[in-house]
């Protein structure tokens, strides 16, 4: 354990009374009613003090303060004197839920089946995922509203019925809207998207979850989380020149890898935090998801207060000031971290990550050599800026300064250059302040306020089937993710680096050291740009028709719209319990396949064109594992059917063989590799195998959100005790559990073994590990968490 030093605890980041009043230049021009979004600080602080007594007054990290102050029953979760972080399960009461339009469909279908008349906590829906980028904001938005009308009507009618705030298509990306409207220091919130931690830029814990977890909060059921470890990231120095907060998290991703944050909260501290803008911190928190972190957070700072004031939330800022003065919004002096990582911001340089994984980090100074060593063409085919990671006013004004330099020199971009504003508020403020015209003057196409190409909603007509490289300010870069082309290499960088390189068209261009040749033949070099974190004239809200009425009352007479013949929406049938003749041991399971290597939720349940089926489990299940690699043969989307009937082929697509198993009432299992389920929070990656009859998945290791999603849907996730056992089990083998009944019945030191019967007749046993809690075992026995919740409500 690492301890926070006396020097650090006495720093300005101790917040409280050392914070100055917000700068007059950023005074807001409006003030919202903040009664529904201000955390109940008095209650939280009272519970924090009570928890401190339970823990013998030991110093706490900021993450612990926020988590423990939201405990449903502190004595139940914390008593016993044992280790908490990394060991205990916490029963928590989140204050808010936010859902994007793709994941909200399944979450609402599950919530509706619970039979409640309203949500137990404030909840919002954000229409951002279903808007496809083709040729520009206005036409893309109109086209997407028309093509997705059925889904938007369903979401809006459900929102009206249950009192949910509904942000219409065009309002912006969920994470930017949450940061602008709902986030508040010290709160705990859930979001049905893996980049929900973006809100951590305002000093809270915002955690990405699947829809079933969101339903816990929406129904008032305590939400369970295994107490994460806390990694302290000590920031010293100051960013300068071309280096941005995006480069900090790209650098850190290279250090931690995509698994380094699993089961951990990243808590930043030190003098380097106070220098960052609130939206810059949000960028860092956003991409914590790429290292598997549960979430990321920061102590309350003056820049957070300034952002709250500028976005009309001065009452929240005043309440946070008071809470900070009582020591609630920063770590205690002497607080211990499970690990401390030292980063000197003054030593960082721009960083580019990729391709195909967000943790392959290369400093800009070495990137040209890296491209040459790999034998790639030194060509850029497109530059894209925006997404939930980098679409703030500060990001856009910074790249606009580069565009001004380029225009003055007579330059335009050499490749398609696409820009996505984060919200209607950002778009309108950009337009008012001339940022939009500046970008368009050098060749940019401004897209709708939505996710667009970042999640595969990009109708790209060039480079089909060709190897090519794009540079983006996005957060993920898995194969096929952005344009459906497995050969497109997406390199992640800051918006400034993406913009500068769009003027060169070359991957090896380094704007710090290299020059561009002007039409006159003279050399031109960019100077480092500086953005404005907040607009001096204040934000303008833009088209408020996109916005919801705050805190709407439920309208129970509203009919939720689902057409009987719909191919987009489908009511859910409860999953049945797996148990039968073997009592509390699973029935014999056939191995569908052994999955090789990286298998993200994009591999398990692809997005892009499949997003239209997010509310229809039968239809979207047709894409199960279609980009996964079968370790027995190395083919993509190929599975073996060793028990095929006459007339059936020996191999077929993975979903086709899974459907055969389901038709035979044959329960099955998967054998998977390390960090299975990395990436998005999409619960469809758990629902789809469950729908086809999967009862158990055995992994070398799991990503946190996906493992929880499997538990929620009644799929048992087991870990190989010896990772080498992965290769001993193959398709067509039969697996039986031994000891699961002991575990369910609560016997001490119960261990689950697997009896494996090979197709050759060989039989052996292997040992597994698990992370199932007492409540999670109850979900599993009931067939799903929702079944269990429903049984308790009836």
From TrEMBL:
Cofactor: how and how many bound: Binds 1 [4Fe-4S] cluster per subunit.
A GO CC annotation given for this chain: cytosol
Cited SUPFAM superfamilies: Aconitase iron-sulfur domain, LeuD/IlvD-like
Keyword Iron: yes
A molecular function GO annotation: metal ion binding
Domain Aconitase A/isopropylmalate dehydratase small subunit swivel as annotated: residue spans: 590-722
Cofactors named for this entry: [4Fe-4S] cluster
UniProt keyword annotations, A-Z: Iron, Iron-sulfur, Lyase, Metal-binding, Mitochondrion, Transit peptide
Domain named Aconitase/3-isopropylmalate dehydratase large subunit alpha/beta/alpha: residues: 64-505
Keyword Transmembrane helix applies: no
E.C. number: 4.2.1.-
GO biological-process terms attached to the record: tricarboxylic acid cycle
Entry's localization field: Mitochondrion
Family: Belongs to the aconitase/IPM isomerase family.
Annotated PANTHER family: ACONITATE HYDRATASE B (PTHR43160), HOMOCITRATE DEHYDRATASE, MITOCHONDRIAL (PTHR43160:SF2)
The protein, known as: Aconitate hydratase, mitochondrial
Species: Suillus placidus
Classification of source organism: Eukaryota, Fungi, Dikarya, Basidiomycota, Agaricomycotina
């Amino acid at each position: 354990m690492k301890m926070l030093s006396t020097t650090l605890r006495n720093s300005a980041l101790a917040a409280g009374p050392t914070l100055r009043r917000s700068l007059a230049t950023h005074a807001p021009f409006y003030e919202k009613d903040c009664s529904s979004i201000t955390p109940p600080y008095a209650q939280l602080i009272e519970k924090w003090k009570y928890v401190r007594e339970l823990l013998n007054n030991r110093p706490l990290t900021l993450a612990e303060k926020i988590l423990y102050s939201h405990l449903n029953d502190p004595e139940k979760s914390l008593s016993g004197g044992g280790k908490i972080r990394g060991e205990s399960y916490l029963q928590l009461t989140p204050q808010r839920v936010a859902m994007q339009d793709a994941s909200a469909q399944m979450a609402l279908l599950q919530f509706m089946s619970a039979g409640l008349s309203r949500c137990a906590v404030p909840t919002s829906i954000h229409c951002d995922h279903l808007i496809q980028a083709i040729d520009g904001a206005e036409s893309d938005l109109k086209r997407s509203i028309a093509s997705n009308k059925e889904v938007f009507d369903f979401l809006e009618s459900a929102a009206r019925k249950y009192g949910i705030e509904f942000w219409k298509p065009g309002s912006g990306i969920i994470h930017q809207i949450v940061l602008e409207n709902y986030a508040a220091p010290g709160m705990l919130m859930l979001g049905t998207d893996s980049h929900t931690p973006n809100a951590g830029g305002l000093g809270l814990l915002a955690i990405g979850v699947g829809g079933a977890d969101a339903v816990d909060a929406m129904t008032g059921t305590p939400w369970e989380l295994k107490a994460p470890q806390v990694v302290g990231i000590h920031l010293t120095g100051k960013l300068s020149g071309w280096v941005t907060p995006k480069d900090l998290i790209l650098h850190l991703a290279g250090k931690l890898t995509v698994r380094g944050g699993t089961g951990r909260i990243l808590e930043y501290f030190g003098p380097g935090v106070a220098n960052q803008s609130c939206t810059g911190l949000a960028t860092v928190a956003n991409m914590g998801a790429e290292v598997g972190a549960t979430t990321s957070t920061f102590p309350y700072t003056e820049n957070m207060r300034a952002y709250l004031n500028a976005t009309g939330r001065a009452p929240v800022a005043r309440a946070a000031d008071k809470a900070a003065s009582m020591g609630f919004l920063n770590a205690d002096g002497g607080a211990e971290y499970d690990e401390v990582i030292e980063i000197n911001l003054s030593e960082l340089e721009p960083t580019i990550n990729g391709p195909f994984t967000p943790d392959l980090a290369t400093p800009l100074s070495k990137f040209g050599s890296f491209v040459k060593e790999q034998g790639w063409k030194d060509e850029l085919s497109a530059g894209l800026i925006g997404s939930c990671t980098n679409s703030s006013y500060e990001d856009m004004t910074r790249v606009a300064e580069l565009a001004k330099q380029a225009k003055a020199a007579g330059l335009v971009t050499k490749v398609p250059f696409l820009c996505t504003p984060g919200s209607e508020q950002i778009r309108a403020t950009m337009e008012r302040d001339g940022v939009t015209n500046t970008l368009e003057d050098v060749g940019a196409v401004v897209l709708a306020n939505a996710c667009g190409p970042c999640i595969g909603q990009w109708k790209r007509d060039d480079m089909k089937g060709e190897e090519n490289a794009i540079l983006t300010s996005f957060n993920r870069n898995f194969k096929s993710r952005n344009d459906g082309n497995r050969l497109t290499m997406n390199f992640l960088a800051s918006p400034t680096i993406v913009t500068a390189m769009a003027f060169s068209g070359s991957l090896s261009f380094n704007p710090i050291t290299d020059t561009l040749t002007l039409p006159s033949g003279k050399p031109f070099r960019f100077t480092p740009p500086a953005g404005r974190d907040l607009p001096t004239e204040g934000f303008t809200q833009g088209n408020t028709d996109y916005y919801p009425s705050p805190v709407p009352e439920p309208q129970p007479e509203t009919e939720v719209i689902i057409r009987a013949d719909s191919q987009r929406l489908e009511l859910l049938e409860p999953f049945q319990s797996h148990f039968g003749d073997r009592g509390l041991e699973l029935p014999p399971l056939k191995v569908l396949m052994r999955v090789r290597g990286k298998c993200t939720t994009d591999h398990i349940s692809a997005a892009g064109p499949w997003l239209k089926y997010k509310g229809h489990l039968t239809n979207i299940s047709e894409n199960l594992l279609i980009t996964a690699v079968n370790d027995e043969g190395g083919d993509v989307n190929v599975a073996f059917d060793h028990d095929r009937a006459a007339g059936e082929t020996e191999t077929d697509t993975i979903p086709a063989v899974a459907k055969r198993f389901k038709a035979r009432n044959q329960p099955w299992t998967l054998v998977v590799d390390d960090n299975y389920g990395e990436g998005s929070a999409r619960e469809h990656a758990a629902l789809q195998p469950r729908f086809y009859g999967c009862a158990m998945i055995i992994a070398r290791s799991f990503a946190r959100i996906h493992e929880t999603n499997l538990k929620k849907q009644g799929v048992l996730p087991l870990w190989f005790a010896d990772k080498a056992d992965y290769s001993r089990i193959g398709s067509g083998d039969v697996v039986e559990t031994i000891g699961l009944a002991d575990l369910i019945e609560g016997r001490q030191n119960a261990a689950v073994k697997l009896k494996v019967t090979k197709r050759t007749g060989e039989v052996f046993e292997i040992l597994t590990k698990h992370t199932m809690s007492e409540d999670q075992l109850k979900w599993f026995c009931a067939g799903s968490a929702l079944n269990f919740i429903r049984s308790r409500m009836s």
